[in-house]
Amino acid sequence: MLTEHMLEHIVAMNVVAPFAVLAGRGFFMHRASPSRWLGVAIVLQIVLLWGWHMPAGLTFAVRNPAALLAMHLSLFAAALLFWAAVIDAAGTRAWGALSALLVTAKLSCLLGALFTFAPRPLYAGYLASNGIQTDGSALEDQHVAGLLMLTAYTFSYIGAAVVIVARWLSEVEKAPSWHDGPA
């Protein structure tokens, strides 16, 4: 089922990856400055997400166990880099982190919207590979997968943005120039 496939990616990319980065913060942040790679992380995550979820990419992955493993590993690795860069940038360049979340959320949600509002199953090859008929239930499965993407990306990215903005405003409020008023 496409819904189960998407759920695996959502959990790996939007739950496990950010928590792994936070849990291993010393490892991720002290080895290199991930925020330097913010632009690369954005592009890599979007290109991999869209590339693997094009009908040909997903069908190829489903038909080849090595490609399926490569799909899961590359998406998880891209998510680790993305979240490490966002979390690192949040401390020094909040606007950069917020911009990364906005751009990535928009493009990820666009993919989810395509799944949700498509009038026919987009993944006939994927469905045929799994012996699934391309009837109404396949379309419903695709729509549910898209709704999961829309919901998960929205909540995870907006949640991260809220935390970054709250932390940023707290730091701004503590700054001496904030309370001094006009000179």
Summarize it:
The chain has 183 residues and is an all-alpha fold.
- Strand content bin: under 5%
Structural class: mainly alpha
Please give the alpha-carbon distance between the first and last residues. 64 Å
Count of folded domains: 1
Overall morphology: elongated
* Count of discrete alpha- or pi-helical segments spanning 4 or more residues: 9
String of helices and strands: HHHHHHHHH
- Calculate Rg over CA atoms: 19 Å
The biggest beta sheet is recorded as: none
| Share of helix, binned | over 70%
Uncertain spans: none
- The strand count comes to 0
Mean pLDDT: 86
Give a quick set of tags describing it.
mainly alpha, 183 residues, elongated
Notes on the protein architecture:
It is found in: Cell membrane. The chain crosses the membrane at residues 6-24, 36-54, 66-87, 94-118, 144-169. This is Cytochrome c oxidase assembly protein. InterPro entries: Caa3_assmbl_CtaG-rel (IPR019108). Keywords: Cell membrane, Membrane, Transmembrane, Transmembrane helix. The chain is an all-alpha fold and 183 residues long. The chain has one domain (2-169). The protein is 85% helix and 0% strand. It has 9 helices and no strands. The protein has helices at 2-23, 25-31, 38-52, 55-63, 65-92, 94-117, 124-129, 136-174, 176-180. Helix 1 (2-23) packs parallel to helix 8 (136-174). It is elongated, with a radius of gyration of 19 Å. The mean pLDDT is 86.
